[in-house]
Structure to design on (472 residues):
């Protein structure tokens, strides 16, 4: 029988949650790496028992871990993610040049075809790759040395590379996003990169349509339609049908189009989920009501999906990597909150149930569909 | 070769699977904080980068080094460690700042 495994990264450890295909009764593990911030965990699509985890701390820096038994036991792997050559400078908040400084790994993206290959998106923005299951890392430095890089500026959360999208149909293609530089694409396996921000409008920029400088919060892609990308920008929900070359706004009837997460349905490439957040000054849901909005038309027309979610006095946030979908026939949707709740919809957003209520603040949620 | 006791914060002991409060490491003379940490990292590679930055080799901001009750965190990494440390009567203490939520 099918089952699912949720990988939840929190501000104070990682949790592995398991359920059968009904997704009703959940077993929650003891905390892994208690006391550490777990920015992200993700399993290999090739070997689901192999899971990579980013463990960080303001005291002890970056640690990376790997499990080869589905998250039961873990072993540290190399944390030596070194910038290639002498790192240059990017723009600091005050506009002055600031040297690149490694801080942490925000996102781990295992290869779609090789369990030993994994990508790591880092702050300050850079993309690293390991082909030996994390025993060593190499920077794909063509990104950081892109001609636009000296003008990149950190967002409020740091200059983080937080989104890595691989395309099984086009193994040389990688799409990444950086706050607050924007989205970038490589069509040569990470050797060279180009900004893909045409159509984005960011009112805070001197030139709102600048090629870079946009605070992209997250990007989602359904593998069945890899040229179609959906973006939750700082403000605005965007859509591209040419792999990011051009974007159009699809916020439509959303009550607010600020937010962090965005994801697509596993089987319906035009079905998209977002969690609107009141504003960039007030990072909680509108009117204290936690609402997932779903579009079944690829944007513009959105409907609130609230059955089972708190509809009063709810003032949590849902961070950019804290939503995921499973691949069961009835697509499950999951998200975690800064209040430590994890919610599951076993029916594509129609109804929601609480999976965990009192975890530390959730930084990331991934799900593995097993069996 | 002196055998030096190193007291580590809980999180680093867990990371390196060190039982008890301390690691115990043989360090070639003349032992210093730098050479002791080099030996510690050679024995426990998972600690590389957690006490000192990989590139700059500087102490992480929220850690301090204490030697026989004195703060040796600033500019004393290459001073010879005192006899009490070399003889194992006192540990070299790597102390994490008490901060955070």
């Amino acid at each position: 029988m099918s089952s699912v495994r949720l990988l939840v990264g929190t501000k104070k450890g990682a949790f592995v949650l398991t359920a059968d295909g009904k997704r009703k009764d959940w077993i929650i593990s003891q905390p892994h790496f208690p006391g550490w911030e777990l920015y992200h965990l993700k399993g290999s699509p090739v070997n689901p028992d192999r899971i990579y985890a980013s463990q960080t701390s303001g005291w002890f820096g970056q640690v990376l871990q790997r499990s080869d038994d589905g998250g039961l036991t873990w072993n540290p792997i190399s944390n030596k993610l070194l910038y290639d050559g002498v790192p240059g400078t990017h723009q600091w908040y005050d506009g002055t040049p600031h040297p690149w400084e490694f801080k942490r790994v925000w996102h781990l993206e295992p290869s779609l075809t090789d369990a030993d290959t994994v990508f790591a998106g880092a702050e300050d923005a850079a993309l690293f790759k390991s082909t030996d299951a994390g025993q060593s890392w190499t920077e794909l430095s063509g990104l950081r040395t892109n001609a636009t890089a000296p003008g990149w500026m950190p967002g409020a959360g740091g200059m983080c590379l937080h989104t890595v999208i691989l395309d099984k149909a086009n193994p040389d293609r990688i799409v990444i996003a950086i706050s607050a530089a924007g989205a970038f694409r490589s069509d040569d396996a990470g050797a060279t990169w180009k900004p893909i921000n045409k159509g984005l409008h960011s009112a805070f920029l001197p030139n709102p349509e600048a090629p870079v400088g946009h605070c992209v919060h997250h990007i989602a892609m359904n593998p069945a339609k890899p040229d179609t990308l959906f973006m939750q920008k700082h403000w605005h929900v965007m859509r591209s049908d040419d792999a990011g070359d051009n974007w159009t706004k699809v916020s439509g009837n959303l009550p607010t189009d600020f937010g962090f997460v965005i994801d697509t349905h596993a089987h319906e490439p035009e079905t998209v989920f977002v969690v609107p957040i009141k504003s960039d000054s007030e990072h909680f849901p509108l009117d204290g009501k936690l609402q997932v909005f779903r579009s079944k038309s690829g944007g513009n027309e959105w409907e609130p999906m609230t059955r089972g979610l708190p509809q009063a006095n709810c003032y949590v946030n849902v961070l950019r990597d804290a939503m995921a979908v499973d691949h069961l026939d009835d697509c499950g949707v999951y998200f975690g909150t800064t209040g430590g709740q994890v919610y599951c919809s076993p029916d594509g957003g129609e109804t929601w149930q609480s999976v965990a209520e009192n975890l530390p603040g959730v930084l990331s949620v991934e799900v593995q569909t097993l069996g | 070769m002196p055998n030096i006791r190193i007291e580590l914060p809980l999180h680093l002991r867990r990371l390196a699977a060190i039982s008890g409060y301390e690691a115990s490491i043989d360090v070639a003379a003349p032992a210093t904080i730098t050479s002791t940490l080099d030996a510690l990292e050679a024995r426990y590679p998972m600690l590389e980068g957690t006490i000192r930055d990989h590139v700059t080799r500087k102490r992480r901001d929220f850690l301090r080094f204490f030697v026989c009750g004195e703060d040796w965190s600033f500019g004393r990494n290459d001073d010879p460690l005192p006899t009490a440390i070399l003889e194992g009567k006192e540990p070299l203490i790597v102390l994490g700042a008490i901060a955070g939520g």
